Amino acid sequence: MTLIMFSSFVILTTITAAQANQCPDGGECASHDVSPNVVVSMLQTKLQTNVLGGAAEAAASEAPDATKSLDKKTLQLQSLAENPSSILTELSEMVSRGEAPSFDLVDGIKSIVLDALSGLQPLRVASDQVTKDYLDAIQLCNDQSKTEEANIEQSDQRSVSDARSLHSACRDAESSMYEHNLTNPDSYCNKLGKFIHEATPLNMPSGMDRASSVKILAAATTSKWCATSSLSQLDNGCTAKEEELKSQRADCLGKQQSFEGLFCLWKYALQANCKALSTCHSNAVAAYSDHVGKTRTLVEKWDMETAALEKILCFCNVWRNETDEQDNRSQHNATQFDVCKTQTHTPVPMDYGTPAEKVTCLLTSVANHPGTSNFVTQEYGSFDDFVLPTVPCVQATTAAPSTASPTTTQATTAPPTTAVPTTTQAYTLVRSGYCSNTPLLRVYDGNSDNPGDTYEESVQACGMACAQQHQPTDGDWGTFGTPDVFSVETAANHPSYMGRCYCGKMATCTFPDHGATFNTYKLEAR
User: Distance between CA 240 and CA 236 in Å, rounded?
Assistant: First the structure.
């Protein structure tokens, strides 16, 4: 009973350790350090504890002198714990010398070997499950990426589609208003322009007397074209239509900026998803490969142990077949051991599976984004005469923040270009703190109006709003000028303020103590 309980405990402990310590999800994975000699060590420990400690001692005291050397040799099994074949080697030498252990010892060895062999199978099953967990972790990366891609399609992409429709409809209306004012025969502006360009000078015939001249002049001032009321009506009507067109153009500009901003956020979301997929899949495959490499080494040891244990079991069966009734030992027959010596073990192959390839993560839908030459053609082709130059999506750089004091280099005074930009904008972290200018200019008050859902997206939106000179919530672009930096609230203590955004000019800003929860970034062309 003691032997059975001890054997069950050691096997259960070995299996539990192998199962509990292999973890593809980032936990402690000590199973990779499980000794490859664990089964043989277990066998040797059992021999030392349950068999050799008593049976060998008893045999040594009772057997004739000829067998005492066997029992002394058997006692040396207690020190054979350095390699998986040590016990097999020792027993093979016993067979070669024609020695035979007592049946009690044979039965004890056989029982322990059977326990050890039965303990190897659960270890293989546990290893198979761990391998499957690693494979599942790789597949999970793909599944999570596809789920996020679907979420982006339902949120960011849909927002872009709605904004595109609103902007397109606005520009179509603007184009119609412009064409009506310019070409419609019934428009005030067209009539006024026609009169101005087609009116002929009033010529007084030479030699005409005063009465005739007054009569001609009176007739001209009361005509349809020269009557004061008619001219005023045309001029007032044309002015009103031009104001409507101006208002429409301002509305379309806001819709254009909103559309481009949402397009960039859509681009950022897709890029972040692809980056997350790449990192997740790469790490999961690396963990799987590491596990497989270590498991292959472990399995080789298991196979070697199994082969040794099966030969030991074969020896035990041969010894047990022939009984010497005088001393309760086997009648040794060397020829019967040949089958054990030539016995081979065919390892059971382990199925390591095939890791899933990384799923395709396409960015083709945002390849033509604000800042690329094809964006205007793709999005504004039907009304490109009315849109303003696009401002590229800003991109984060990996440059470390500077600890130097702000420079006093004067900003450029070159006039802004009206050409469509072909470069992209980047932002680099300058330092922590808030760049305070006088006058100030704030474009977002916090998470209530900043379209970014995360801090990173809030930074992107802030940089884009400053670059595009969005409608400020405080301040005026006319008096502020052109920004080259922007400051974003990190919301360390006040989550509702996350994304509060100030545009700034580095040459004239200061960094007050109360702005410690902000980060300031520099806008630069790439």
Answer: 6
